[in-house]
Design a protein that fits this description.
Radius of gyration: 22 Å
Number of strands: 2
Order of helices and strands: HHHHHHEEHHHHHHHHHHH
Structural class: mainly alpha
Strand content: under 5%
Shape: elongated
Helix content: 40-55%
Number of helices: 17
Strand order of the largest sheet: 1-2
Number of domains: 2
Distance between the termini: 52 Å
Largest sheet: 2 strands, antiparallel
Length: about 375
């Protein structure tokens, strides 16, 4: 239900955001929007100003705002930071349709070599197709941090991750060091009712709009760790929810239809809310345009599935890698934290500083996951490939 609050009480931005998500979900259920005057883009921007934002606690007004936003977006009147508005579902972050699942059984076919599987893999073909679409419309999203050449390099890096295997390792500890390492045994990440916490309790401790357990740590940790304590709580929550497409890319096969739809809708609501915050001056063009470009590139890499794993050798060994951040500057999901910190401090970072931060995040993240990724043969881990 949409929250209600006395007009005499100044609502927090968090209250406004939660009411916005409720209204966004309600407007999505309408078979046909009622005939009512739509708010113009200038009016939408104005209503998000401090002196007017209390009006959004009115049920009718906030529904009118969500319907108006959907209408303007449907007419290609809202850009994501590029010089052109989004023209397809890959670049339209308000579309609520992102689903990178592919109908591919190449991991169940008889091995015919890495190159053959890459050519027949539905997941890789889906990523390549998404890449072509996004690169063709780069004027809708391109920024200094997230560029077309860097996206192409990231896609190439993932496709080639299992090539150039180096099974005999030479390290600073001497040749064939890995021969002395015991077999890696790590816990499985898949849900296990025998040891997992109760979902109801988890949702009370870490509330998410979708009530899906995977959302809590995956969405909020990076944001909370990077300045949420001094950032407006409503903006921090919206920034966290805007990364739903990353969760869809990671977990879409494990989600049921209802859960997947909620992830899509709440992610779209969050991006729409942040766009209006951008239009009203609450967040800067640099913050929003980089968030949009980053999420579009995350969508592309979200198609990737390594169906070659059943045919890879066990253990620790190197393979093709051209750099720490080639694809990890996208899928290590660092920018959500950067954006929260930027909103909290008012500071921005250049491409060089961002990539240095990415390298640091990769070292921490991929070292933490080293044992588990070794067991699962998850070659997206660049430290594993660079062994």
């Amino acid at each position: 239900m949409i929250s209600k609050i006395s007009p005499a009480v100044r609502p927090t931005l968090l209250q406004i955001y939660l009411s916005w998500v409720d209204a966004w979900l309600l407007s999505a259920k309408e078979p046909q929007p009622p005939k009512e005057p739509l708010l113009t883009l200038d009016e939408l921007s104005s209503i998000f100003q401090d002196e007017n934002i209390h009006k959004l606690m009115n049920h009718k007004t906030i529904l009118q705002a969500t319907r108006s936003f959907r209408n303007h977006n449907g007419k290609n009147m809202i850009s994501l930071g590029g010089t052109q508005p989004p023209s397809n579902d890959m670049t339209d972050l308000f579309s609520e349709t992102y689903d990178p699942q592919s109908d591919c059984n190449c991991d169940k076919t008889k091995p015919k070599g890495s190159t053959h599987r890459q050519l027949t893999c539905g997941a890789i073909n889906g990523m390549v197709s998404a890449t072509e679409t996004v690169l063709h419309t780069q004027d809708e999203w391109h920024t200094d941090l997230f560029t077309a050449p860097k996206l192409q390099a990231a896609v190439d890096e993932l496709i080639l991750a299992n090539t150039d295997l180096q099974l005999r390792l030479d390290t600073c500890q001497g040749p064939s060091t890995a021969d002395l390492i015991p077999k890696v045994r790590a816990p499985d990440r898949r849900p296990n009712p025998g040891v997992d916490g109760n979902a109801i309790i988890g949702n009370q401790l870490y509330p998410t709009a979708e009530q899906i357990k995977i959302c809590a740590d995956a969405k909020y940790f990076g944001v909370i760790a990077c300045g949420a304590g001094i950032c407006d709580e409503g903006l921090a929550r919206a920034i966290a929810d805007s990364c739903n497409d990353i969760l869809i890319g990671d977990y879409c096969e494990a989600a049921d239809a209802k859960g997947l739809k909620l992830l899509q809708q709440v992610g779209g609501a969050a991006m729409a809310f942040l766009k209006l915050c951008n239009m009203s001056g609450r967040i800067t063009d640099w913050q929003f345009s980089n968030l949009a470009a980053y999420m579009i590139q995350c969508r592309v890499l979200g198609y990737f599935r390594d169906h070659e794993r059943p045919y890879l050798p066990d253990g620790i060994y190197g393979s093709h890698m051209t750099g720490l951040g080639v694809h990890r500057h996208i899928d290590v999901a660092a920018f959500h934290g950067v954006m929260t910190a930027s909103v909290a401090t008012g500071l921005e970072c250049c491409e060089k500083d961002f990539m240095r931060l990415v390298d640091a995040c990769v070292y921490v993240n991929d070292f933490v996951d080293f044992r588990g990724d070794t067991m699962r043969k998850q070659r997206e881990n660049v430290l594993l490939r660079g062994s």
